[in-house]
Amino acid sequence: MLPFGHWLAFFAGDRFGSNWYRGSSIYKSMTTTFRSCIAVLIAGAALAGCSTIDYDQSGENYAVFQYGEFKMLVNANARRTVDATERALPKVDLRETAKRVNRFDAKVAARAWNRTRVLVTIEEVNSLQTLVTIQWGEQGHLDLSRQLFDEIDAALPSVP
Questions:
Q1: Comparing C-alpha atoms, which of 5, 57, 53 is closest to residue 149?
Q2: In angstroms, rounded to a whole number, what is the distance separating the alpha carbons of residues 136 and 156?
Q3: Span 104-123, pLDDT tens digits
Q4: I need a surface site. Which of 24, 70, 83, 84 has the fewest CB within 10 A?
Q5: What domain range is 59 assigned to?
Q6: Which residues of 61-81 are buried (b: 16+ CB within 10 A; e: fewer)?
Q7: Strands 62-66 and 105-111
Q8: Do residues 56 and 73 share a domain?
Q9: Helix H or strand E segment including 33
């Protein structure tokens, strides 16, 4: 175990005017280990919680499930997607609790029978495509989010 002064010199750097620790092998070993741990933590944080999901059997369409949010594009504008979302909610036993609609985006909040909060965020990417993001509960639920998205996608052709 190193004395407190060694640890203080290692973390404080040159603040105390001493440079004796720079050449020691303990300092080099601790610096390398510290940098390696930081690199692993950054890489883990950047890659954790993200997965790409094959949406269809052909492998042409993909959805993203990241940090509990299911994200997928639909071929419609935002207004038609909001209408389709309102039609799809009762089909998966959800009750709409709030809605905020702007020109190019919208948020629709709903509750499940067990009081789980579901938030559907709709953002128009261009005039032909809209990004639908579904957050099912706090942690997200891939299967239920995908089921809701399937209902939204199925309701799109019926929306004028």
A1: 53
A2: 21
A3: 999 999 999 899 999 999 99
A4: 24
A5: 50-155
A6: eebebeebbbbbebebbbbbb
A7: unpaired
A8: yes
A9: helix 25-47
Within 10 angstroms of residue 137's Cβ, the number of other Cβ atoms is: 16
Six-digit token pair at 58? Answer: 């052909």
DSSP 109: E
Q: Which two tokens stand for residue 80?
A: 């038609």
Q: Are residues 28 and 54 in the same domain?
A: no
User: What are the DSSP calls for 56-93, one per residue?
Assistant: STTS--EEEEETTEEEEEESS-HHHHHHHHHHHGGGGT
pLDDT digits (tens, 9 = 90+) for 54-104: 666 776 777 888 888 999 999 999 999 999 999 999 999 999 999 999 999
* Domain count within the chain: 2
Can you read off the two tokens belonging to residue 6?
């060694």
CB neighbours of residue 50 within 10 Å: 10
In the structure encoding, which two tokens stand for residue 70, read together?
């299911």
Nearest to 26 by CA among 7, 12, 54: 7
Count other Cβ atoms within 10 Å, centred on residue 37.
Answer: 10
pTM of the model: 0.66
For the chain, the average pLDDT equals: 78
In a domain, 160, yes or no: no
Tell whether 96 and 67 lie within a shared domain: yes
